[in-house]
Amino acid sequence: DGGITQSPKYLFRKEGQNVTLSCEQNLNHDAMYWYRQDPGQGLRLIYYSQIVNDFQKGDIAEGYSVSREKKESFPLTVTSAQKNPTAFYLCASTETGGANTEAFFGQGTRLTVV
Amino acid sequence: AQSVTQPDIHITVSEGASLELRCNYSYGATPYLFWYVQSPGQGLQLLLKYFSGDTLVQGIKGFEAEFKRSQSSFNLRKPSVHWSDAAEYFCARLPEVGNEKLTFGTGTRLTIIP
Hints:
The structure holds two protein chains of two kinds. Chain A is an all-beta fold. Chain A is about 0% helix and about 55% strand. Chain A is built from no helices and eleven strands. Chain A has strands spanning about 5, 10-15, 20-25, 30-40, 40-50, 55, 65, 75-80, 85-95, 100-105, 110-114. Chain B is built from no helices and twelve strands. Chains A and B meet through strand 4, strand 5, strand 9 and strand 10 of A and strand 5, strand 6, strand 10 and strand 11 of B.
């Protein structure tokens, strides 16, 4: 079945360490997204990519980095520069083009800094 | 900046009562609007979407939404809620085809009382 897979579901990180969250999709979607979710703040856009080898900063990109070397993969690295990384992270992809546009979401990764 | 506003952080309704969740967007040409629902610790599921045409759109689980350009609103409604509708609801906006910056409101948490 087609969909988006995020791994791992839970992730623990020590302060000062970088950590990479995985997002893979087999929907053949061009656009992919990373969101951060905190209670009461909704989904805030970190980075998005409209095409392979290209990506744009979202509203809260500081302390994060991404790559888009393959259409199906959009990993997110949470760097040590991110001051408050504990959150729920959601990856999404969209098929765009008029009435077919719809975002599909992974099940999320909960990152905790210990 | 283009944005989505959900003025109600938390709404409580009785089972069987009607529901309306508010969503306002900042003005832009041809907005693409969505409503998503999220159960705790899960990804988001699309309820319905609007691109053009009929301003009253029907979605899954008995939900509908009405696009009102004059009020910049896209409110979600359901005539009679069920206990299983308790969740968090997000309104989202895609500015236009070719600009894939998908942004979300802060969400409305819905509680259902017996």
